[in-house]
Amino acid sequence: MDKVKVAILGGSGYTAVELIKILLRHPGAEIVAITSRQDEHIADLHPSLFGRLDLRCELFDPDKLQAMGARVAFGCLPHGTSMESIPLLLDRGIRVIDLSADYRLRDSRVYQEWYKESHHDAANLAHAVYGLPEIYGDRIDSAKLVANPGCYPQTAILGLAPLVANELIELTGIVVDSKSGVSGAGRTPKLTYHYPECNENFAAYAVGTHRHTPEIEQALSDVAGKPVSVVFTPHLVPMDRGIFSTIYATPTQPVTEAGLTDLYRSYYAGKPFVRVRTGFPATKDTTGTNFLDLAVKVVRGGKVVVLAAEDNLIRGASGVAVQNFNRMFGFDERTGLL
Ligand SMILES: NC(=O)c1ccc[n+]([C@@H]2O[C@H](COP(=O)([O-])OP(=O)(O)OC[C@H]3O[C@@H](n4cnc5c(N)ncnc54)[C@H](OP(=O)(O)O)[C@@H]3O)[C@@H](O)[C@H]2O)c1
Q1: 149 close to ligand 1 (CB < 6 Angstrom)
Q2: Among 112, 220, 233, 291, which one has the highest count of C-beta atoms within 10 angstroms of its own C-beta?
Q3: Strand partners, 146
């Protein structure tokens, strides 16, 4: 079978380099183009790729990508920028897996409210599929445009889905307390992420205003079939990578830890990248992998506490993007990832 020709947009960033490494060991994918505003060999931008991929970055040119036979493009660009390029690819029959937030929120007014800028590709927003395979499975297979999910939202959505699907918790006031390593902010420098600023430091940010809030609520409301609201508080921790979320929910009926663990295991049966554990997940157990580790606890007073850990750059971005690619092009979901 011919390999699927792949283009990557925004090649100098963190998600792009992880994506390239996964695709280089994928038997069904061939990277034919990498775009960047920098006229550099990819190995000069990412020395870890030295000797592994002989490709020079090029400016974004949708006609050229089409002429090269690219069947799919992975967008590793910032939000706002993505929606400038993606319509041009879709018009040329190139399917897209967009890692930015541009196509995740179904309602452009919600996008405008949280991202403080207007959405100007409503036509493609209308058919984009949210690329969380464990929840939206089959819908991804035939999608022309997949909105790859955010890093924090995956921990919250997959951490809570078995509970909201079975109406076992109250659907308002769920607390999602999350911590992320600094690579979550990307490679583009900013003062907050300068080493002396973030090393040996631990702080919350965007309290009550983080843009992943509506994304979490949209997906959980889909699972519940009714509105779900969360209080989401992200923190920056002095690690390179990894996300850990501690989620607090109030049960609507008496529950036991063993019963909920069984429920989680059956909910995620056949989903190779969600591991339901009985101990305490930790970011290091998931580093460099596409696994999202979960554990569910019942504590004094009857509250349910869900623990979720993932690698923000793999499961949170490039790994799940390849999981989506596998579904879209008929490969086993695990190809290149296990
Ligand atoms: N980091 C994470 O953990 C994570 C997780 C999930 C999703 N995401 C999302 O994935 C996307 C990529 O994230 P990242 O962490 O890889 O970011 P990044 O390291 O900052 O890389 C983004 C790349 O986009 C290009 N770029 C920046 N501004 C641009 C502009 N105005 N026009 C064209 N190209 C531009 C840059 O490449 P050139 O300078 O070479 O042109 C840059 O290297 C973002 O939308 C992010 O929100 C990130």
Answers
A1: no
A2: 220
A3: 97, 129
Residues noted as catalytic: 151
- Does domain 151-312 bear CATH number 3.90.226.10? no
CATH of domain 4-149+316-328: 3.40.50.720
Residue 118 CB–ligand 1 contact under 6 Å: no
Whole-number Å distance, alpha carbon 10 to ligand 1 midpoint, is 6
Residue given tokens 């205003």 in the structure block: 209
The average confidence (pLDDT) of the chain is 98
pTM of the model: 0.98
Find all residues with CB under 8 Å of 2, minimum gap 6, and list them. none
pLDDT at residue number 279: 95
Mutate-to-test residue for ligand 1 from 9, 18, 20, 37, highest number of ligand atoms within 8 A of CB:
37
Give buried/exposed letters for 212-230 (b at 16+ CB in 10 A, else e).
bbbbbbbbbbbbbeeebeb
Best CA proximity match to 123, nearest among 152, 148, 145: 145
Contacts 24+ apart (CB under 8 A), 105-113: 105/214, 105/215, 105/218, 106/218, 110/214, 110/218, 113/214
Sign of the CA dihedral with 316 first, then 317, 321, and 324 last = positive
pLDDT digits (tens, 9 = 90+) for 31-84: 999 999 999 999 999 999 999 999 999 999 999 999 999 999 999 999 999 999
- Ligand 1 within 6 A of CB of 162: no
CATH 3.40.50.720 domain span(s) along the chain: 4-149+316-328
CA nearest to 104, candidates 157, 152, 149, 140: 149
Per-residue model confidence (pLDDT) at position 1: 75
Cβ–ligand 1 distance for 100 under 6 Å, the answer: yes
Residue type, 140: I
**Does the pLDDT of residue 174 top 80, yes or no?**
yes
Rounded to whole angstroms, the Cα distance separating 188 from 255 reads 45
- Where are the CATH 3.30.360.10 domain residues in the chain? 151-312
